[in-house]
Specification:
Blueprint: E1 12-21, H1 25-41, E2 47-51, E3 65-66, H2 69-74, E4 87-88, E5 91-97, E6 102-104, E7 120-121, H3 124-137, E8 141-144, E9 148-153, E10 159-164, E11 167-169, E12 175-180, E13 183-192, H4 199-207, E14 219-228, E15 238-244, E16 253-260, E17 264-272, H5 282-289, H6 293-296, E18 303-313, E19 324-325, E20 328-330, H7 332-335, H8 346-365, H9 374-382, H10 384-390, H11 395-421, H12 462-467, E21 481-483, H13 488-497, H14 501-504, E22 510-514, E23 520-524, H15 534-538, E24 544-546
Helix pairs in contact: 1-3, 1-8, 8-9
Length: 560
């Protein structure tokens, strides 16, 4: 038993060699590789994976076109074992959209690294479910429905594990009849693989000052719907990306359409969170995008199956923090390993899991514990992850500085110079500048944006779409969206920025409710939250902190 706050039962504690937070591609790959190495070397290594979703894959959201590089290293015979990736990419298209027309860019203009041939289209959620099965077969303990909410430290400040949140707590913080104390899961090494803007990773980066030598992390919000389209509109293996309309030329973002499976199309829209107009609504831009003449025909006669949204790490190479700290390490999107122009991160997530596993097994074999896994840091910064991210390092800052047309052109030139022509670029490594929370203009200097009313066939309102994410939270629980100062939304953000939380949230969580006397109050509909973390990133007063709700709550993304 572990001692804890006065007045509450003590928490049970379980001991493991390695504790992993997050059953995504990074966390599960680390668990699998640890068990593989343990079998090869004859070591007994206990591993546990905690997942806040109700099941493995429930909170996984990705396009997804998957580069199999990581899987090939982790499980070379994954195809023969029946991994749920069967649709190979057969065609790449790149479009520039205008208000009523489009221009297709010749593929020969694109740097070779943008070629998707050899990759697979599928559901990352289904893939991680399969990885979870592989991990369990190797003896990994996988616990879905358990949200890690606290990092545990020893007297010297090293990480020694995590604690899960208490269950059965009422909105006012008092225990209900169903109250259950959280558990402590202690490990010699703790690997954090929560995804973009994870709450534990955020606290660890701050505590150990891991970002002191890196650029600010940059983010986007990715919104996605899964459609079943008519057979006449389905082109299995087609990967289509676009940029331009409906975004203006100084707002970064773009779209994807991926055709795979049995008449399935993943349609998604990404808005870079360094946008400056507080009236912009990423969700409504996504809905507007689907009405473009070059896009809407794909969905004629089809039906939407699922909806979701998630923050993406976009800072790339120069925004990667120090990865290892006493007792653990950051993996996958918790560290920021997404390749922005390719819109891919799962291959690097798997590779980071492999590197972390190898460093941890080596340390355990040497009798070490609770120290810094320097071998992991070195492997990432000298291996395939580094080579993947270094060659696209300037795409994001160029796009941010020069807008869509010039920025993408210069970014493409930079990639050509690095990958084909000279192996280097005279631009070196560019910085990102401001955090995304600090890029909004004041409302008085911005132009409001009028969005059309959804038609309920091709375009949908937020709350209707949220119902297609299968999001569910226990209503009588503490609000997991914490305001540092409850007065700021109405007294600061509303007059200065027209309270942008009403628009940047893709799930209708935040509302400004006005009364008959003209007064206003800020309402948080926490039960709608799809765990995208955008509010934690974009709030101009940096007043909102996202923390884990009760374990198992949130979306349940079927096949997303």
């Amino acid at each position: 038993m572990a001692s804890d706050e006065a007045g509450l039962p003590e928490r049970e504690a379980m001991e493991f060699d390695v504790v992993i937070v997050g059953a995504g591609p990074a966390g599960l790959s680390a668990a699998i590789r640890i068990k593989q190495l343990a079998a090869e070397t004859g070591q007994e290594i206990s591993v546990v994976v905690l997942e806040k979703g109700s099941e493995v894959g429930a909170h996984i959201l990705s396009g997804a076109v998957i580069d199999p590089k990581g899987l090939d290293k982790l499980i070379p015979d994954w195809r023969e074992r029946g991994a749920p990736l069967t649709t190979k990419v057969t065609e790449d298209r790149f479009l520039v959209l205008g208000p009523s027309g489009d221009v297709r860019l010749p593929n020969i203009m694109m740097p070779p690294l943008m070629n998707n041939h050899g990759n697979y289209i599928g559901s990352l959620g289904l893939l991680v479910r399969w990885l979870g099965e592989q991990a369990a077969e190797l003896g990994v303990e996988v616990y879905p429905g358990f949200a890690a909410t606290e990092v545990l430290y020893d007297v010297e400040g090293a990480v020694v594990g995590v604690a899960t949140g208490d269950m059965g707590v009422a909105r006012d913080g008092t225990p209900k009849d169903t109250f259950q104390r959280g558990m402590e899961l202690r490990g010699k090494y703790t690997l954090i693989a929560e995804g973009a803007r994870g709450s534990l990773a955020k606290s660890l980066i701050s505590r150990f000052d891991l970002a002191r030598d890196s650029q600010p992390q940059k983010f986007g919000i990715g919104l996605k719907e899964l459609w079943e389209v008519s057979p006449e509109q389905h082109q299995p293996g087609l990967v289509q990306h676009s940029f331009g309309w409906p975004l203006d030329l100084h707002t970064g973002g773009g779209s994807f359409l991926y055709h795979y499976g049995k008449n399935l199309v993943s349609v998604g829209f990404v808005v870079h969170l360094n946008y400056d107009n507080p009236y912009l609504s990423p969700y409504d831009e996504f809905q507007r995008f689907k009405t473009h003449p070059a896009i809407r025909t794909v969905f004629a006669g089809g039906r939407r199956i699922s909806y979701g949204a998630r923050a993406l790490t976009e800072g790339g190479w120069q925004s990667i923090p120090k990865l290892a700290f006493p007792g653990g390490a950051l993996l996958g999107c918790s560290a920021g390993f997404m390749n922005l122009p390719r819109i891919k991160g799962s291959h690097n997530a798997v590779l980071s899991g492999i590197h972390a596993a190898e460093a941890a097994v080596e340390a355990l074999a040497a009798g070490r514990a609770y120290d810094v896994l320097d071998g992991y840091e070195k492997a990432v910064r000298a291996g395939d992850i580094a080579s993947d991210l270094k060659r696209v390092r300037n795409v994001k800052p160029l796009w941010s500085r020069f807008g869509t047309v010039a920025g993408i052109g210069l970014g493409g030139l930079d990639m050509w110079l690095r990958t084909i022509l000279f192996g280097w670029s005279p631009l070196g490594t560019l910085g990102h500048g401001k955090r995304d929370a600090k890029t909004l203009r004041k409302a008085r200097k911005a132009t409001p944006i009028a969005y059309a009313k959804p038609d309920g066939v091709l375009t949908f309102d937020k709350l209707t779409n949220v119902s297609f994410s299968a999001t569910n939270h226990e209503e009588d629980q503490p609000v997991h969206l914490k305001l540092a100062d409850p007065s700021i939304p109405i007294e600061v953000n509303l007059p200065e920025y027209a309270e942008p939380a009403q628009r940047y949230c893709p799930a209708g969580v935040y509302e400004v409710v006005r009364d008959d006397a003209g007064g206003a109050r800020f309402q948080i509909n926490a039960q709608n939250c799809v765990h995208c973390k955008t509010c934690d990133i974009k709030d101009p007063s940096e007043n909102i902190t996202w923390v884990c709700p009760e374990g198992g709550g949130g979306p349940n993304y079927a096949e997303m």
